[in-house]
Design brief:
globular, 163 residues, disordered N terminus, single chain, mainly beta
Length: 163
């Protein structure tokens, strides 16, 4: 009876621990064509603009490439993208889509979210980006300090569905 109780407890503990996907398995969840919407701020001190976006991503065991476009009515269209390499558990690469030009990305994954530091070399400004995947949903959120108050401001919040 004790052996059975110990086996049940061990099985319950094993089931309660979430499986941690390898980086290759996680990157695979990001591959495909995505469509979504959300809001962006061209600068942290400006009002958000609603956008519709399309995104295509290719993934391998050590690399993720995302290319897309966001549109705000007929007023604005901006290419967005990221190229990330994975070395062990460390992500690094480049982000495009800001009016400031390309930015470097670096960070790591926690669960289903890649937490990245964003740095624009020419301006010295920094931000953070979270790239989250949950099966058929993808979310990208960037946060940057307001230039006057220093308070964090969400500069992009985009939600995508797999197409």
């Amino acid at each position: 009876m004790r052996a059975l109780s110990a086996l049940i407890v061990a099985a319950a503990m094993t089931a309660a621990v979430p499986a941690h996907a390898s980086e290759a398995e996680f990157l695979e969840t990001l591959e495909g064509n995505w469509a979504g919407s959300g809001s962006i701020r061209l600068k942290p001190d400006q009002e958000p603009v609603n956008v519709n976006c399309d995104l295509s991503s290719d993934a391998s065991a050590e690399r993720l490439s995302m290319d897309g476009n966001c549109n705000a009515m007929i007023v604005m269209s901006r290419a967005i993208g990221a190229d990330l390499s994975v070395d062990g558990e460390t992500y690094s690469g480049t982000y495009t889509g800001s009016p400031r030009g390309p930015a470097s990305l670096s960070g790591n994954r926690s669960g289903d979210t890649v937490n990245l530091a964003v740095a624009w070399p020419e301006t010295g400004r920094e931000a953070s980006m979270q790239l989250s995947s949950s099966g058929n949903a993808l979310q990208i959120v960037t946060t940057e300090a307001h230039p006057e108050t220093g308070e964090p401001v969400i500069t992009a919040q985009l939600s995508f569905e797999r197409q």
